[in-house]
Amino acid sequence: MTPQTRAREHGRPERGHGQVVLGRAEAISPTARAAQLGHVYSLTDPMLAELGLEALLNELLERTRDALGADTAAILILDDSGKELVARAAKGLEEEVEQGVRIPVGGGFAGRIAAERVPIFIADVNHADILNPILREKGLRSLLGAPLIVEGRVIGVMHVGTLHPRRFDDEDAALLQLAAGRAGPAIERARLFDALDHEHRSAVALQRSLLPERLPEVAGIDVAARYLPSFDEVGGDWYDLIELPDGYIGIAIGDVAGHGVRAAALMGQLRTGLRAYALEGQPPGETLKRLDRLLQSIRGRGMATASYATFSLETGALRIASAGHPPPVLVSAAGEARLLEVPVAPPLGTLPYPAHKEHEIALGAGETVLMYTDGLVERRGEALTVGLERLRQAASAAASAEAICQRVTDALVPALGAPDDVAMVALRNVPVEGELRLRLPADPQVLVQVRQMLRRWLRSCGAGPDDTAALTLACGEACANAIEHAYSPGGASFELEATHDEGVVTIAVRDHGSWRTPRGRHRGRGLKMIRAAVDEVDVRTTPRGTEVLMRRRLHP
Amino acid sequence: MNVPLAELTFTIDADVVIAHLRGEIDMSNAPELSDAFGSRLTNESRGLVLDLTACTYVDSAGIHVLYELQERLRNRGLELRVVIGPDSEIATALELADVPGAMGSADDVETAVASLRG
Q: Which residues of chain A have a CB within 8 Å of the CB of B28?
């Protein structure tokens, strides 16, 4: 059955109107034939393919109206429910779109075309079942409409109308169907693209929500990180920085195999899992072993690579374990970068009981470790060593963690995104020398970090074990007191300043409260302990806060 | 049990409970440490020996827990002994707070256990 033979009139023949048999014109003149070919060409013009959806619909409606000698042309598309047609684009009938006319499938002119999937011709609007009042208000007399069909599904209706009575024939119906055949797939493609784009944006939002909102600010280290989605899909890359309860800093990176929302969701589970094991105090190797077990227990599990390291603020020791993950980059204080050779266990989720060996290096003052995912260095048709060398060169800079991340991003990640997503995290061991100045959140958790920083600084001053223990104790008491003064949880902070001059160490701890009056039988011990641990102590209370000044001469 | 920063384990030597504290105690984990002793204090025993040889830091919040522990034990008629190693990093802090004098201390667990039975 050809489209032409399916076209039929929809009118009210009992009143003697529009009783028309659509049939091929018996004879056609060469001029008419040429005009017809011109119309066909105008509707199949390859140039149309270069237009965006709005421009294409505009041009197509214009050309259809001209080809059929009509006064109006319009396209309605089926909404998401599949039950109503919504005006999408129109020429000479712009009100239809502006007013968002909706026609139920099965009802009226357009509704019947969608329901019956055939072209329909109305000879006289005044005597037909028309639901859309605009068609009458506009003074339209005759209408011809055809369904937009994509892969066997009706997605909408296209129709033309005339202000004078007009008999549309099979040729007209064929031309309209030609235009409909052009518009349908274009609309569908745009809709799919929108849906994909929406899914992509949702997936990127999900991915971002699964990554750390902000990095912890820890005295003595400088940290930076990036997550860069690929240009088309989200992936399962993650990074994390964890303040461990023993004062160490955990630094993690991982990459779930695969793409899309599933990979991102699994990433979220693994990031949480790794963080939980790390906070339990598990060392890097054991953390990855447990993470592996966790991954193997997840239904429909995947595969992932990950690397986890712990960093000591006190000694600079970096203990690292890797499960199939690319090697970290170590940047010296002078800015020379090299790849760290780390023993690598198989990726997570691949072997039943892999052993996760640890490797320890000393991250010296001013040195930076950069961990990243393979999306940064892998390029199709290129040896991995080439990408790694490019990374090594980009990371070669005596710069902050943030600047190194930026240099690497600029050099290795295309502006519109790499083919694969990329995560990276960098930690720089900030040199501690001369004087120590820290601004710290008023949180008991920072006490252990303060002790570690202070011990490291005291070592650089040449302090022995007794001096270190005494000064650490005195400073710890003063800091604990400053923390107890904090009235506003979350926002409050205090400052620590330590200087060393001719064998005398001076430590000042300043807060913005007043020295807490000792309460209870065993309270008040803090100040007593400070007095006993240092040679000189001075507690100054000003309207701005309290300063505890402590001095102790180091024993040679 | 694990408290952040430190680990507390218990062994029993007949009528004496021995608690081994490893790690560091400050105001961030002192309350948890105090709770961790709770369930181990029974009237069956003669007393508690707290082994601090593997404890590397203790501040006034931690010392407060020790005095509080001593008080709780005393209320049940039990005694506390602390073991401070000869090269202890926390000896100074404990001495400043008069812990050895107030609780009775020993250099090793055996001596502390014996002093409880004495």
A: 444-445, 447-448
DSSP structure class, residue A15: G
In CATH, which superfamily holds the domain spanning B2-108?
STAS domain (3.30.750.24)
Which residues from chain A sit within 8 angstroms of residue B57, using beta carbons? 451, 472-473, 476
Final residue before a domain boundary, out of A429, A447, A475? A429
Length of chain A: 556
Find residue A550's DSSP bridge partners. Answer: A507, A537
Q: How far is Cα A9 from Cα A280, in angstroms, rounded to an integer?
A: 78
The CA distance from A79 to the nearest CA of chain B, in Å, is: 58
Structure confidence by residue, pLDDT tens digits, A189-207: 888 877 777 777 777 777 7
Say if CB A96 and CB A87 are below 8 A apart.
yes
Q: Alpha-carbon distance A15 to A128, whole Å?
A: 11
Phi, psi torsion values for A488, nearest 5 degrees: -100, 105
User: How large is the ipTM?
Assistant: 0.87
CATH number assigned to the domain comprising residue A231: 3.60.40.10
Instruction: Give yes or no for a contact between A476 and A451, defined as CB atoms under 8 angstroms apart.
Output: yes
**Which chain B residue lies closest to A468 (C-alpha atoms)?**
B89
Tell whether A526 lies on the interface with B, counting CB pairs under 8 A: yes
> E strands within A19-108?
72-78, 84-91, 102-104
**What is the value of pTM for the model shown?**
0.66
Q: Does A465 touch chain B (CB under 8 A)?
A: yes
